[in-house]
From TrEMBL:
Claim: Hydrolase is one of the keywords in the record: yes
Cofactor annotation: Mg(2+)
Molecular functions per Gene Ontology: hydrolase activity
Protein name: HAD hydrolase-like protein
Keyword tags: Hydrolase
Entries under InterPro entries matching the protein: HAD-like_sf (IPR036412), HAD_2 (IPR041492), HAD_sf (IPR023214), NUDIX_hydrolase-like_dom_sf (IPR015797), NUDIX_hydrolase_dom (IPR000086), PGP-like_dom2 (IPR023198)
Pfam family, one: HAD_2
Nudix hydrolase domain location: 3-130
Record PROSITE patterns: NUDIX
Length: 346
């Protein structure tokens, strides 16, 4: 933190599309609940204490997730003095109520922007563009997408890519049976099978990365437009994929997906669990639920996508753009030709 700046911790809690804020006695502007860490406190420890002191309520310990740090001119301070606010999403363990030091709490939306402190306005703007603070019937809804063969046609290009790397770098001839057997596993695990663990993980990843741009994925027609349409209608959107996060972000950005409007893009390198284990969704579900998103749907092309989503308590929509057809999915699962038809079942 820059010298002279003010460090604060703040809570993001959303209900029915509205953001929880508070106002101290004698103050005009509302702020996000939270405050300054005491000496020796971490930002997260300060959050727990401040929320209890200000809102007379605790936080579900396992629900707290970092959202990001927002920096802005500190209200009521000399020009150039900034507040650096570390924000966390979390679920409240009870009903919030103003403590003795708080005159008023409120639930606000975009129309209340000018009532907020400068840094709280930045947070509100971020939540609005991600369709987390939103009015209307979709305030409780979120759709999470798989990436490969859901938003991009992947199998043809990447199977050819893996054949190329296996042969040219490791002297391995890959068969369709091996490609199919391990397709969709976490990236580093998958290439271990494909390249027969002929080198270290770092060396296999580097060999793959060196030629990956020669085998680009093909965007699925109508996928980007579907994501934009959902966001514009107040549905929050995220991506959970078995590929590496940096590669997923690059592919999405290249095709014009609005990364700043997506709640989260999670690759296999960010988590310890992987599909079909439902815990692969733990991080994004904790964030979505803290932001009031209780109607959650996962969209994917594989049976492991279906199993993970249903076991995580989400709805699931299957797509026929991968290795599986309608008959392969469960009887009660809605299955579509591709993601452009998603509105038919939402």
């Amino acid at each position: 933190m820059a010298s002279g700046n003010i460090a604060k911790s703040a809570l993001i809690s959303i209900r029915d599309g509205k953001l929880l804020v508070a106002r101290s006695f004698g103050k005009e502007k509302f702020f996000l609940p939270g405050g300054k860490p005491d000496a020796g406190e971490t930002a997260k420890e300060a959050l727990y204490r401040e929320i209890r002191e200000e809102l007379s309520v605790g936080l579900h310990a396992n629900s707290v997730r970092s959202w990001g740090t927002f920096t802005q001119q500190a209200d009521g301070k000399a020009a150039g003095v900034q507040v650096e606010m570390a924000c966390f999403t979390a679920e409240l363990d009870g009903e919030p109520a103003p403590s003795e030091e708080i005159e008023e709490i409120a639930w606000v939306d975009a129309s209340d922007r000018e009532k907020l402190s400068a840094v709280a306005q930045l947070v509100l703007d971020d939540l609005v563009q991600k369709s987390l603070v939103v009015s209307g019937a979709n305030s409780h809804r979120a759709v999470i997408f798989d990436l490969d063969d859901t938003l991009f046609f992947t199998i043809e290009a990447k199977w050819n890519h893996h054949r190329h790397v296996a042969r040219e770098s490791f002297g391995v001839e890959l068969t369709d049976d091996v490609l199919r057997e391990h397709w969709g596993k976490p990236f580093t695990e998958m290439i271990g099978f494909y390249y027969q663990n002929a080198a270290s993980v770092e060396e296999m990843v580097a060999a793959n990365a060196a030629s990956r741009d020669l085998f680009p994925k093909k965007p699925i027609e109508g996928a980007r437009e579907m994501v934009l349409s959902l966001l514009d209608d107040g549905v929050a959107v995220g991506v959970v994929t078995s590929t590496r996060t940096e590669w997923a972000l690059g592919e999405l950005e290249r095709e014009g997906y609005p990364l700043n409007r997506l709640t989260m893009v999670q690759g296999s390198d960010l988590v310890d669990f992987h599909k079909p284990d439902p815990r692969v969704f733990d991080e994004i579900l904790k964030i979505m639920r803290a932001c009031g998103k209780t109607s959650l749907t996962y969209v994917g092309d594989a049976l492991l996508d279906e199993r993970a989503a249903l076991d995580a308590g989400m709805k699931f929509v299957g797509l026929e753009t991968g290795l599986y057809s309608h008959a392969d999915f469960s009887e009660n699962t809605p299955v579509l030709p591709d993601v452009s038809h998603l509105r038919d079942v939402l």
